[in-house]
Amino acid sequence: MPPIIEISGLRKTYSRAFRQPHNALDGLDMEVAAGQVHGFLGPNGSGKTTTLRALLGLIRVDGGDMRIFGEEVPRRLPQVVSRIGAVVESPQFFKHFSGRLTLQLLAESAGVPRSRVEEVLEQVGLKDAAKAAVKGYSLGMRQRLAVAQALLKQPQLLILDEPANGLDPAGIHHMRELLQWLAHSQGVTVVVSSHLLSEVQQLCDSMTIVSRGRRIVDGKVADIIAGHSSASLSVRFPDAASLPEAVEALTGAAPDLTAAVDRDRLVVTGAPEPAWVTKTLADAGIYLSELVTETKNLESVFLELTGTAPVPGRTVQIGQSVEVPQAAPGGVAIDVQAEGVER
Amino acid sequence: MNLFKAELRRLARRRLSLVFGILAVAGVVGLTAIMWATSSQGPDEGQLAEAQAQADQWNEDNPDYGDCLEDEGFFEENANYAWAVEDSAYADMSHEERCEFYVGGMTAEDFIYTYTFSFENEGSYMLIGVAIVAGLIMMMLASSAIGAEWSSGGMSNLMVWHPHRMKVWGAKLGAALAVCAAAVAGVVVLAFGLLYLTAAVRGEVGDLDGVWWEATLERLGRTGLLTLGMTALGASLAMLGRHTAIAGGVIAGYLIIGDMLVQITSMSLPVDYPERFSLYTWVMAWISGKIELYNWNSSGMEMTPDVMVITATDAGLLLGGIVVLFGALATWAFQRRDAA
User: Fold this and answer.
1) Number of Cβ atoms within 10 Å of the Cβ of A186
2) Of B162, B336, B339, the CB nearest to A109
3) Chain A, chain B: beta-carbon pairs less than 8 Å apart
4) DSSP category for residue A334
5) B16: nearest CA in chain A?
6) What is the ipTM of this complex?
7) For residue range A61-93, what is the model confidence (pLDDT) as tens digits?
8) Residue A310's pLDDT band (boundaries 50, 70, 90)?
9) CA-CA distance, B71 to A151, in Å (whole number)?
10) Ordered structural domains, chain A, with CATH
């Protein structure tokens, strides 16, 4: 099945008076396969929202190609827009209108039946608050209304920018279940831009990580994490004085292994398996009190890939993420089904 | 069509539309109340008797007037009134008339103020005024509807649903113009009904013959077109500035400061017909059908000034050109600029 979204070499430059132009998108490539929840990640200012706005025809780009459902956008956007539901950036509504009226006006403008308004209000849990003016809504309620608006058309492609923003834990859980149900049971392709990495890890099937307007990596979430996980072991001893002896015992038994003292514990990487560590140390007459396997999660992978891991005493500034070298023309074809590939 | 209907509903459901609607109706009712209170069909017997008593009292308190009436040779014998004898009209008056005219006797009419509202003479001007105020309101409403949608983010939301920007702009402008036409027509009809009733009960309706109807409808029609142009201009300015305040600022800036600057500049420069630089002149020419400007500087000693005539066609071309220019700029900007 062809990808639902195909983006290649997308460029967007903002010219600024008396300053250097800013390349918001610097040759971005991206593909999203059908029927998946696809995460779109990147540090602040990396070009996520710009990409989504460009896809939806809200801004003009300076170069590159974009296709949705195989149709070139923005030129053919009017032909496919009825199949796309989207929320870009923070949801904004006319504050004196009720939630129901807001949806009714949009539905009416596109010829969507009124009954659909009640269905989506029910779906996002806003039925009881539908009569209230939007100005009285919390951020989470506005977020739900925005998602309701995106669902009105019964879209085949749902594009959501930070959908969990402002939601309470129950709301996040509900949103996750809703999006997964849409993707896996209804065949809707969902693209989610988010900073909540734990949420993305639970929600998404695949993802693209971008930095400074270029793609760093894409693929299945599990594969990307696995591809960057060199699991380490944290070992503690009843007596911290045993640490140097333990290092000597382990590195003597396996020269390729790395054992580093981190305050009162030993961090071991490259060991064949945890049981080997316990046996080697016991054979050397050293008994451990704790052994924990530390696996990387999406957050640590993201920080490593984007180069935005915090350094004590320093603040990571906007735009200080890792710079991706420009891909050679006619570079590697992207296969989102394949293992995560660094670009 | 769906989008147009949704835009009509969006405009109608706005709180500002309700507030402006109430203000417009209240304004018409207020104008009617003022006309009702100030107009009368003439003094009644009681008012006449009271006025006569006041006139008699005044004449009694004025010794010169009494002396004049009693003395046929008052003017010839009194040096203070020698100037009256030399007046050319003096010889043609009776003695009583001379006393009233030169010394100042009062009659009952001098103590009665009556104003009679004549619908025939004043009605059409009032209706035009009402239509212009309604047009100004619609101008603000149209600019607010579009400006608020930009500043609230609603416009981006709408464009996600309707990526064809010209359809969005067309629907919004069309809805604003349709509401303007309906609102101005409604307010004018209401004003007509209430003012006609006031004239019938408290003043005089007059002769509303074919000529009156033709002239009134012609001017009202052109005023209606002017209000549509104002609405389109307000919407265009908001589309260009993407904020209600910017559109409002440009309009208020011109109305308050711009025209004043034009007047000051034209006064300080030696130009003929300086009034032609004011937009108000062209608006007046458009509504009334024709306006004449006089250049007294060129007349020399003859006191017959040169005349510049601005017809409704001239004014229509200029005012229409301004609306079309801003409309085209707004269309171009909306089509080309990023929605963020």
Assistant:
1) 13
2) B162
3) 82
4) P
5) A96
6) 0.74
7) 999 999 999 999 889 999 999 999 998 866 678
8) low
9) 102
10) 5-226 (3.40.50.300), 230-294 (3.30.70.270)
